[in-house]
Amino acid sequence: MNVMIQKTEIENYYCPICECKRSINAREIGRSAYMDNVKPFLSIKECAKCGFGFRYPLLTNDIILSHYYDNINYWQGKLVENNIYFKKRAMNRIEFIRDIFSKSRRDSKMLEVGAYNGAFLQLVRKVFGFHNLYATETDEACIGYMNSRNIKCSKKIENNKFSLIAMFHVLEHYPEPLAFLKEEVIPYLDKDGFVFIEVPYDDVRKKEINCLRTSNHTSFFSKESFKIISKKTGLSLIKMESFGKENKVIKKILTNQYSRFFLNATSFLERKISGHDNILPYFYFLSINDAIKNDKGIVLRVLLKKY
After folding, report:
1. By CB neighbour count within 10 A (0-12 exposed, 13-18 middle, 19+ buried), where does 20 fall?
2. H helices of the chain, where?
3. What is the domain-level CATH number for residue 175?
4. Which DSSP string do the residues of 101-147 spell out, in sequence order?
5. Digit-coded pLDDT (tens) for 43-91
6. Any domain includes 64
7. Which pTM was predicted?
């Protein structure tokens, strides 16, 4: 895939969340290509009205999806099963919704978009007793793994209605997240259903903290941007909290060019030997503690409800 962006497209930009044109803060916060074959390089802009950050020029959701579907082994070939890091993060997410879903009907249908290994859904079944579990993924290894564990997984959302649709670190990969929610998520939401979202928090200003994954991110969320998303989707904002505290020692390791050279070299050898990169995600998980509430946290958890 080779994406060329015309000059006229560059001149007509706007905030994908609040659609504001005049209040765009045009200063360049950073420059980074989303993909190596996308030209020109995409800068990051910040909306002065809602604080939403976005890659500029905007790529379409179709272009982003084709990138993932064209890279079937997006997770680098070998699936990491439900290890301690995934279990810990899944439990932190469970605690965020425990008070609401502990009283839900056990035949309720739950969907996770971009579920990877299904750690969250497996814990949903264990903690709440739900058994109608669905997931979407683009990676064939992930799809097979979840189906073998009685999670109905496919590449597209099944034509169904769900009491909960969860997506963790998915929405930041979409250049038009509001349109994605309206067109691809809410139509599948049951009456009184919930959307549970987790994204990097205020990542447009903390870009170096998430240096491992930032090159794949096209949207950078603020709390204000989710308030606008709530109004524009017609979903009620039930809960929104930020979590996590950066580990400055590990952050220094991740941002130091010599340390990163060593980590990248180690990761390269791991991919050659085992087919999967374990070192960099390991340091990323250690660099945050997403069980701790923190107004200036690393991740933002949002619960929206349809009435």
Report:
1. middle
2. 7-11, 61-70, 84-101, 119-128, 140-147, 177-180, 223-233, 248-255, 257-274, 279-286
3. 3.40.50.150
4. HTTS-TT-EEEEET-TT-HHHHHHHHHH---EEEEE-S-HHHHHHHH
5. 677 787 888 888 776 766 666 666 555 554 454 445 566 566 778 889 9
6. no
7. 0.80
DSSP bridge pairs for 242? 300
End-to-end CA gap in the chain: 41
- How many Å is the Cα radius of gyration of the chain? 19
**Residue-range definition of the domain harbouring residue 36:** 3-59
Structure tokens at 193: 């259903």
- The mean per-residue pLDDT over the stretch 226-233 comes to 97
Domain assignment present for 87 = yes
Q: Percentages helix, strand, coil for the chain, rounded to the nearest 5? A: 35, 25, 40
Indicate if 240 and 256 belong to the same structural domain. Answer: no
Total number of domains constituting the chain: 3
- Alpha-carbon distance of 139 to 193, in angstroms, equals 27
Residue 170 shares a structural domain with residue 299: yes
